[in-house]
Amino acid sequence: MSNLAVSSPISSDRCLMSKTNTKVASALRELATALACLGEEPCYEVLSTLLTAPEREKIALRWRLVCLLEQGVTQRAIALELGISLCKITRGSHELKYGPESFRNVVQKAVSKGVPRATHKRTAKR
Question: Which of 1, 10, 25, 52 is least enclosed by beta carbons within 10 angstroms?
Fold first, then answer.
């Protein structure tokens, strides 16, 4: 039996992962399109209904984290305030610095409107 005839579990896993990622990306784009035409309250209702309580908590925590970073709160202060590890905060900082411009713009816009507010003193940014 030739080695070429046998597919490796690793290569088939990569293929499956690629197909899964494409399906996930497609579904997220569909959701983004649906949410983009809604106002604040209907969007909140959709997300609250679609996500489980733990999922809502994780997303809210990530949002709070990046907004605090944008406000210039130190990573250590954020860790104390939110009770999360510096590793998670570093990832959020990385996304603000190197992530899509649209992500930074949304966070900056939210912070400029005062949502959410930091409870710690402002310091040098990231």
Answer: 1
**Are residues 82 and 37 part of one domain?**
no
Answer whether 29's CB lies under 8 Å from 53's CB. no
Residues 88 and 60 in one domain: yes
SS3 state of residue 45: helix
Q: Taking the model in full, what pTM does it have?
A: 0.72
Structure tokens at 99: 């992530």
Q: How far apart are CA 66 and CA 98, in angstroms?
A: 13
Question: Total domain count for the chain?
Answer: 2
Full DSSP string of 72-113: T--HHHHHHHHT--HHHHHHHHHHHHHS-HHHHHHHHHHHHT
What H or E segment, with its residue span, contains residue 32?
Answer: helix 9-36
User: What is the per-residue pLDDT across 35-74, written as a single tens digit (0 to 9) for each?
Assistant: 999 999 999 999 999 999 999 999 999 999 999 999 999 9
